[in-house]
Specification:
The protein has about 170 residues and is mainly alpha-helical. It has eight helices and no strands. The chain has helices at about 5-25, 30-45, 55-75, 80-85, 90-115, 120-130, 135-140, 145-170. α2 (about 30-45) packs across α3 (about 55-75). It starts with a helix and ends with a helix.
């Protein structure tokens, strides 16, 4: 692919990849950085793109993997600059509530990361990419009903994981 063609691809999908990462991370700057990394990796790997799914989905899969790598590296630390930029003039309760909400989101993302396939991909594509069941089914070569059933199972597995986590927390 020529640089000009890749530039068109970048312009077409950069906002969607960024929004996807922002939903996952809740952090503007992390999302910006990971978006750039996503397109660098996509440029390098473009020859390996088989066309089994839409380009947007492929890019978001790359972004998801980079985000999970970021989580492993960061060990869930909330960067000080994130706090300073977002909460300089706000009430302490708002900061605490938002940090708790961010921590809960990170726990859920970690739980999703531990789901087996196809559950992980279905949950991410449905909740974060907001793809409909038929689009997800096309990627797996399965029916819409198969996706619905597996999405339901994935939600139940997440619910069980959350319940286990809450039970452990209540025992302490």
């Amino acid at each position: 692919m020529e640089n000009k063609e890749f530039e068109v691809l970048y312009q077409k999908y950069v906002r969607e990849v960024f929004r996807f990462l922002l939903k996952l991370s809740g952090n503007y700057h992390v999302s910006e950085e990971l978006t750039q990394e996503t397109f660098v990796k996509a440029y390098i790997s473009l020859a390996g793109f088989r066309g089994d799914c839409q380009l947007k989905v492929w890019l978001c899969q790359i972004a998801k993997n980079l985000f999970f790598d970021y989580l492993k590296r960061s060990k869930n630390v909330v960067p000080l600059e994130f706090i300073e930029e977002n909460y300089t003039d706000m009430e302490k309760n708002s900061l605490i509530d938002d940090l708790i909400e961010k921590e809960e989101l990170l726990k859920i993302v970690h739980m999703i990361q531990h789901l087996k396939e196809p559950y992980q991909t279905i949950i991410i594509q449905r909740l974060f990419l907001e793809l409909d069941y038929s689009e997800i089914g096309e990627q797996f070569g399965k029916t819409e009903n198969w996706v619905r059933v597996n999405f339901y199972r994935a939600k139940n597995k997440l619910h069980d994981m959350i319940s286990e986590m809450e039970d452990v927390g209540n025992e302490m």
